[in-house]
Amino acid sequence: MVDWDAGCYERTAAELEPVSRAVVEAAQPQADERVLDLACGTGNAALLAAARGARVVGVDAAPRLLAVARERARSLSLAAEFVHGDLLKLPVPDGSADVVLSVFGLIFAPDPTAALKEVARVAAPGARVFLSAWIPAGPINDMLAALGRVVARVTEAPPPPRFAWSDAAAVEAVARDAGLTRLATTRSELAIRDDSPEAYVTGGQEHPMALGVRPVLEHAGVDAEARGAMLDVMREANEDPGAFLVHSPYVVHELRAQA
Fold it and tell me: What's the rounded Cα separation, in Å, for the pair 46 and 37?
């Protein structure tokens, strides 16, 4: 279980904000529409929707990140409510959202079917649902795979299977069972920049997921090896010799609640 309050997720949240902008632009929340941002983190998508005049609620399991989101809303003079809650038991009433958003959040739900059933429960008839998911390809995926190989070797345990959130057919099947219809899936790429590959990998060490695996690496004495493996991937993939630039592919699924 990842402690999303640990470390400094704010760095990653800022990196992901262009995806939040793309998702909100696709969803087109209107003034006074009820918008629910699931696993809202520091509030990127929620605040963008609030800036359009929507009535926004953000839900996250990390109290510290919710506090960051509230402070951001205050500093921007935006009205948005941020509440603590679980993706499998959302603290909102049935049929209370006209638009449901999740930017790389729902993909961490331990039970995809149950998570989408909760989305269907809170969605009003005909509600628009937009969620983003990483495609398991590209340099960031390769970097994490390199780390995973080191972890798997020292723990003698294969990585746990993950639901194929980027696969339109897989999502369509689970969504249909939950009472949602998949309308479209669009592919895009996120540009990720930093001063250098070294700066990117070093900064990533404070990500909550990195902090979760660090004790395993340190106990096995392979933390330097793991960092070196990740650096090798990033140096090879770097598109900007004077700094650091890679592109990470993702999809946005558009679903619709039953009318």
Answer: 6
Please state the separation of Cα 185 from the chain's center in Å.
17
64 within some domain:
yes
Q: Which amino acid is at 205?
A: Q
Spatial distance between the Cα atoms of 103 and 132, rounded to a whole number of angstroms = 5
Residue listed under structure tokens 């009433």: 93
Tokens representing 222 are 């392979």
Reported in sequence order, the residue ranges of 18-174 that DSSP labels E, i.e. its strands, are 34-38, 55-60, 80-84, 97-103, 123-134
Expressed as residue numbers, the domain containing 91 is 9-136+161-194+248-257
| pTM listed for this prediction | 0.95
Cβ atoms within 10 A of the Cβ of 258, count? 11
What's the total number of domains in the chain? 1
Q: In this structure, what CATH number is given to the domain that contains residue 18?
A: 3.40.50.150
Token pair of 236, please? 């090879």
Q: What single-letter DSSP state applies at residue 85? A: -
pLDDT tens for residues 184-225? 999 999 999 999 999 999 999 999 999 999 999 999 999 999
